């Protein structure tokens, strides 16, 4: 599904990523770990074309991202749901409206939005919060809305960049369980985190990054420093 071939990314002549070779298959759950500055976020930004690489290739379903035009990139992004540590919900919109707005921007008909949003919010466990505003929800609930928003266009890949960074332990494990559920439904999940306990609980593939390189790639292992 995703293949990095000798990928290097520079920021002002400093290598943020260096000679990355990595393959992630359909349906995998991959934990991407490493200390701050290891290159995790940069690698993720390259996948959904927020950043451009300096050398090498990134292929998604055998399509070279660098070959895409500006008008084609939005179609790539519709395949990818993204969740950040900074949740960025619209404060004056309800949970329904936050998810629905994402679908509206993507061009979905109102009828489909009305039908699908309640189903998506039910998947993330927020059926009873559908008309609540962000200020009326806990941190964990707001992150669930963010995940629902990322799922709105039925992505084949979900990228979660430090989604539990601002949450307590209980809410962090609840978000982790939700990501597992989404993965079990067939969506490929890439979780970038520095939370050792979460990674060790997952018992899935772990890719450890150090100073812009892949240091370890364990099919089923622990956060190895």
SSE arrangement, N to C: EEEHEEHEHHHEHEHEE
- β-strand percent reads 25-35%
Class by helix and strand content? Answer: alpha/beta
Query: What's the average pLDDT?
Result: 91
Largest sheet: 6 strands, mixed
Integer-rounded radius of gyration: 17 Å
Q: Which runs of at least 5 residues are low in confidence (pLDDT < 50)? A: none
Overall geometric form: globular
**What is the CA–CA distance across the termini?**
27 Å
Helix content: 25-40%
What spatial order of strands do you see in the largest sheet? 6-7-8-3-9-10
Compute the number of strand runs: 10
Count of alpha/pi helices: 7
Written overview of the protein:
- The chain has 225 residues and is α/β, with parallel strands linked by helices.
- The protein has a domain at 89-153.
- The protein has helices at 40-47, 73-77, 95-105, 110-123, 139-151, 169-184, 196-202, and strands at 2-11, 14-24, 29-33, 55-60, 63-64, 80-84, 157-161, 188-193, 205-210, 213-218.
- A hairpin with a 2-residue loop joins strand 4 (55-60) and strand 5.
- The longest helix is centred in the C-terminal third of the chain and has 16 residues, at 169-184.
